[in-house]
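Hey, weird one. I pasted the DUF4355 domain-containing protein sequence into the form twice and got a warning about non-standard characters only the second time. First submission, copied straight from the form history:
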Amino acid sequence: MDLQEIKAYFQTNKDNEDIKNYLSELSKVTTEGVDQFVATEEGKKWLGKHNDSFFTRGLESWKKNNLEKLIFDEVAKANPQETPEQKKIRELEERLNQKEAQEKRQSLLNKSLLIADQKKLPKDILEFFLGDSEESTIKNLDSLEGVFSKHVEALVNERMNNGNYTPPNDAKGNDIKTIQETFRSNLG
């Protein structure tokens, strides 16, 4: 009997209870059969796909049930809740720090006004040159003085070199040329 004859026999007797029982026993899944199937490439692909879906569902379930609580706990640990007393103390410390900073700034401004008076610097731009300390403010004002002096000197030289400057007359009303001529005539 060959395979074709066996297939034909099963086909013609498919309604026979003995044949049905025999065929169902042949198709039963055994542990050994599953192990052999999983060892094949096709079995590994099938198992990997199902494992991924089970893992994904498990991870989503864990996230849903635990992740939010873990995040909340970590945030609470990093930023502990303040009691009303702690909050009030923090606010008072902030106000005190602001007040000290304002007083320091005012002190620096007063000091810079004195220095500006001594150095003949414009006072309306002093706030731009205030530093974090008295030393840095003085250094900034020294820089301003240097730049300002150079600028004024350049303007004076420009006026003098262009011939636009005419020296004033003396107390008697004589201009500089008359004074120079008188001086030369007396010398010579």
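That's the output from the first submission. The warning seems to come from a hidden character in my clipboard, not from the data itself. The chain has a mean pLDDT of 83.
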